[in-house]
Amino acid sequence: MFRRPDTALDVVGEARIARGPAAIGPAPAPLLVGVIANIRSHRNMKHGMRLDHWPDVLYTAPETFEALEEALRDYAARGIGLLVVNGGDGTLRDVMTAAARVFDVMPPMAIIPSGKTNALALDLGIPEGWTVRDAIAAAQAGRFVERAPVQVWRGDAARPDACGFLLGMGGFVRATELAQSTHRAGAFNGVAVALSLGWSIAQTLFGGAGNAWRRGTAVRVQADDEAPATRQLYLLLASTLERMPVGLKPFGPARAGLKMLTVNAPPRHLFRMLKPILSGTTGSPAVAAGFARTDPRTVRVQLDEAFILDGEHYAGGDLTIRAGAPIRFAAA
């Protein structure tokens, strides 16, 4: 979402505090708010991004990952009490990733859903028209919901390489590429999910034995204390979300924590498998043998192919996947 380091710094709009008239009558305790805005998010580009300035609100719209990290360091030094992200899932992913490098303890957060996909906002029940003012009011009223991000660590790194909410490997990478093409066609959120899912199924059902969708991806997986095993997987999904777009339930009943779905390759009984996977049920014994739902604490993965985290491609390698510390998100 934000251009990564090694590009020229270019920050649009300096972080600043806007001063205004004092409130009349009783007012909530002062809350210093820091807003990270993505001017390229779908709704911000379509409808324009209105930056109302109120007392104790800081705004910045960094255009590079390096500038984003610097803005967060400024917010941390000022002691913000609420970090607001105006953007979609990709913007939130980048902000959480940069914030993990800056904050010793993550501040409470809020999301203003303005991207092409807004999975966390859907999970939290954030309305489409939610504003920064709404987020501040919710925080002042103490309306928070906790969600722990999915963290991806490389090798023996001292900090996570990336933080997000929905990670996928194998067929999910190709499905995401299809979803991006549906975005170009004007389909977003649940509609994009449904269209890309339908096309993915068709590619798999009617592809030959050498079809990349059916062949799957070789992944060496070790969940918790289990012995590592190299598996040929059609799909691997991991998430800490409790509600998925368009009512999908790939991980089964809603629950907190890290959840993982794996589907073996080549997928057998795929057409019969779809309903139990999407509805959160088990299906017949023959169908259930082709996929597994688990709740691991930590997953060690080694793969050569790329994976997807909240819509972004990342190089494979020696990875550790786990849930990070819960973050408090302001909720409607």
UniProtKB/TrEMBL annotation:
Query: Domain DAGKc spans what residues?
Result: 66-160
List, in alphabetical order, the Gene Ontology terms for molecular function in this entry.
kinase activity
- What protein name does the entry list? Diacylglycerol kinase family protein
PROSITE patterns, sorted: DAGK (PS50146)
User: What organism does this protein naturally occur in?
Assistant: Sphingomonas insulae
The domain of life is Bacteria
Entry annotated with the keyword Transferase: yes
What are the UniProt keywords, alphabetically? Kinase, Transferase
Listed InterPro entries: ATP-NAD_kinase_N, Diacylglycerol_kinase_cat_dom, NAD/diacylglycerol_kinase_sf
Extract the SUPFAM superfamilies matched here.
NAD kinase/diacylglycerol kinase-like
